[in-house]
Amino acid sequence: MSAISETRTPARTAAIGWDVGAIVKFVAVTVIALVVISPLFLLVVASLKPDRFQILADMGSFRAFWVSNPSLDNYRNVATFSGALPFGRYLLNSLVILFCTVLGGIFINSMAAFVLAWGRLPGRAIILTAFIALYIVPQESIVLPLLTIVNKAGLSDTFAAQILPWMASPLYIFLIYQFFIQIPRDVYDAATVDGASPFRIYWSVFLPISGPVLATVAILLGIETWNQYLWPLMVTNTDNARPISVGIASFFGHDSVYWNSAMAASVMMMAPVLIFYLAFQRWFVSSFISSAVKG
Amino acid sequence: MNTVLGKRLLSVLGTAAALSVTSLGLSVAQAAELKVMFQGDPYEVTIITDVAKRFEAANPGTTVQLINTPHDAYNEKVGAAVSAGSLPDIMQLDAPFLANYVWSGFLQPIGGVIDKPLLDDMTASNISQGTYPIDKQLYAIGLTDSTVALYGSRKQLEALNIRIPKSVDDAWTKDEFETVLKTLAAQPGTKWPIDLFRSYGTKTEWITYAYEPMLVSMGCDVIDRTSWKATGTLDGAACVAAATEMQNWVKQGWVVPQSAGGNQFYAEGRPAALAWGGHWFYAEAKAQMGDDVVVMPLPKFGEKGASPNGTWIWAVTKTASDPAEAGKFLSFMLQDPAYREQYKEHAGFPGLKSFAAASPLYAPGGAMAVAFEQASKSAVPRPPHPAYPTITLAFQNAMNNIFDGADAQEELSKAAKKIDADIEDNDGYAPFGKVE
Fold first, then answer.
1. Beta bridge partners of B108
2. How confident is the model at residue B4 (pLDDT cuts 50, 70, 90)?
3. CATH code for B148-309+384-429?
4. Alpha-carbon distance B266 to B263, whole Å?
5. Does the pLDDT at position A152 exceed 80?
6. What does the pLDDT read at residue B20?
7. Are A109 and A172 in contact (CB under 8 A)?
8. Which of A163, A254, B49, B284 is least buried, going by the fewest C-beta atoms within 10 A?
């Protein structure tokens, strides 16, 4: 009897311990998930309410998380390509800026990194150090000189003004550089022996095997570009090239906040990012892990 | 495979470059003769866009380029435009910042370029918000103005036999106001007797805009408006007593805390009995409470009453390519019947007498008539001084700290020193402080 109880007791403890641990984990994960999801849920629910007054009246109570008569009117009013605040246009502008910046950014940063890692460039180490040093310069401190350059170049209120200055980044050059220098020298030499030019080696050999780091750069640069506010605010004057981040701010007036429109526009701004994330979440995780390991 | 991928990438990049070049071409083609920078609520953006189109139709050959800038980032955009030497021809500005802009040399007087009947139609409060105190010239004009009123529930006040003031002369005295707060605090269901809209926080103009009149009514000010010194005024006995009094309301639990949001007056169960709100608050309250909302004048804390004024007004910049044309646009806009009609629909607070007469909400007998009467009798502009950005920041931080329990004397002295230091750093913002 005592032998049996001696053998059973640890097993029972282990089972209870596992259960308690699982419950604690479940509760913790649920709480964290609620904390993360509830603002997003509130955002979507509020965007379906009939007007800003209803949103204001419900704010601060649990009714904020409930909509009795959901309506898509806020989306209909916001998703327009004409009128004083054409959010459809702003969203499209944002997508164009995002697409061009990320694509151009991958191209330029990886080329610079390739030259720094493998090119016959005098003073490579100094240039690389200068690049890294540049990373500590905050964007806000260069906004005014950059604005003057953009104005003098006649690029004000264009897509180019929002794309060109931000494609190249010391951080991304350094990130890709770190990846490139870990590729064995034999790979480069073999391609050279085959008669490939440096650009051909970069394009046909290095780029195809750099998926993880390029994905990391694309994701980081994409998020950075999508959330840009100060710079587009400075360089855009009209709806021609204004992105949605600046457009949303128009709902915060001097007298009132138009929460219904702001919420609908925010959902519209969030949706592409969310869809992109859900579609590529495996890439997100693996690319961040790989860059963390390499970094 | 890689070559195909490369070709695709190159073609995409080519398209991107073409897009950029196309957009550059578009912006050049749309270059405007009259650049107008403004901000506003979404409905205002529509109103201004519409009136610009009507102006273009009425004045063939003149193009209006509208630079709509989000309200919260307006000053940053102005700063950037100044630095880049690209100020527009016409710009909107928040009235209390006018002195700073004129002193900095951004604006020019508009008395000579605006239609005379329009100038004659301005209310005294509107003139005061657009006038530079040094040369007494008008630099800005607007269709609208603003004020703050006291809102309550007619049913609740009548049930408690609380007198409802019907005119400015009839406003509650300080003792009466505090008795009302005490009475309301004792009511079951009333969580806070008054919402002072602390939820607006220190990142807006609210504290200076809405609370400074309390100080003025209690016999002091944020700065001496003759010597332009804050020390001795803002940290003087009268202001310290006034700030301590206001702090006491918070200590008693009478004021809606900052964290509770700005909807407590009309939220379910009406946790806040009264609201010290801007004229725009009427629409929010009315939407939830209907005709039960009653609008009252601000209390008279001392010998005289005081109320805030000032809103976003229109000015012509010093670098305007054609000031006469800019004046023509402003005159057209402010007299345009459709423009006025749209502002009327959105309960715009009148800054022109004719607009007031045509606005049922503010005309005699209207729900907000007492608010308009208040603007004509007790409006006090915020200090029209180039140091205003510093004045408002220092005062707002001080009042916020005082509400949070800090020592009033200490906080106001700190604010006064900060304001005076800024004025000294700028050599007194001459000629301010040197003229009578």
1. B316
2. very low
3. 3.40.190.10
4. 6
5. yes
6. 43
7. yes
8. B49
Give the closest of B27, B39, B66 to A156, CB-based.
B27
What local confidence, expressed as pLDDT, does residue B75 receive?
Answer: 86
Q: Which of A6-15, B42-51, B380-389 has the lowest mean pLDDT?
A: A6-15
User: What's the confidence (pLDDT) of residue A135?
Assistant: 82
Task: Measure the CA–CA gap between A224 and A102, rounded to whole angstroms.
Answer: 10
CATH fold match for the domains B32-145+310-378 and B148-309+384-429 = yes
Neighbouring CB atoms inside 10 A of A58's CB total: 21
Contact yes or no for B168/B295 (Cβ under 8 A): no
Pick from B45, B261, B280: which is nearest to A250 by CB? B45
Write out pLDDT tens, residues B271-301.
999 999 999 999 989 999 999 999 999 999 9
Question: Cα separation of B414 and B399, whole Å?
Answer: 11
CB proximity under 8 Å: B 34-63 to A? 35, 39-42, 44-46, 48-49
Locate all alpha helices (DSSP H) within A65-182, ordered by sequence.
73-78, 87-118, 124-134, 139-152, 159-167, 170-180
- The structural domains of chain B, with segments of one domain joined by +, span 32-145+310-378, 148-309+384-429
Q: Give the residue on A whose Cα is nearest the Cα of B349.
A: A255
With contact defined as beta carbons under 8 Å apart, do B338 and B106 qualify?
Answer: no
Distance CA(A197)–CA(A191), nearest Å, equals 8
A146 Cβ neighbours under 8 A, 6+ residues apart: A165, A231
Rounded to 10 degrees, what is the CA torsion of B286, B289, B290, B296? -60
pLDDT in the model for residue B17: 41
pLDDT score for A18: 65
* CA dist., res. B286 & res. B43, Å (int): 19
The residues that bridge with A117 in the sheet, in sequence order, are none
**Looking at residue A289, what is its pLDDT?**
64
Q: Check if the beta carbon of residue B302 is closer than 8 Å to that of residue B310.
A: no
Calpha distance B92→B94 (Å, rounded): 7
Please provide residue A254's backbone torsions phi and psi, each rounded to the nearest 5 degrees: -80, -25
Of B2, B69, B86, the CB nearest to A151: B86
Within 13 Å of residue B404, how many CA atoms lie on the same side as its CB? 12
The CATH classification number of B32-145+310-378 equals 3.40.190.10
Contacts of A103 in chain B (CB under 8 A): 9, 12-13, 16
Average pLDDT over residues A210-221: 89
- H/E stretch holding B47 reads helix B42-58
Q: What percent of chain B has pLDDT over 90?
A: 81
**What is chain A's length?**
295
Average pLDDT over residues B342-351: 92
Which token pair is B253?
């639990």
Question: Can you give the pTM of this predicted structure?
Answer: 0.82
Here the tokens at position A110 are 């990886």
**ipTM for the complex?**
0.75
Which of B9, B53, B64, B263 is most worth mutating to test chain A (most A CB atoms within 10 A of its CB)? B263
Dist CA B302 CA B221 (whole Å): 13
For chain B, the distance separating the N- and C-terminal CA atoms, rounded to the nearest angstrom, is 82
Contacts of A41 (CB under 8 A, 6+ apart): A65
Determine the Cα–Cα distance for residues A212 and A287; give it in Å rounded to an integer.
Answer: 5
The length of chain B is 436
pLDDT at A174: 92
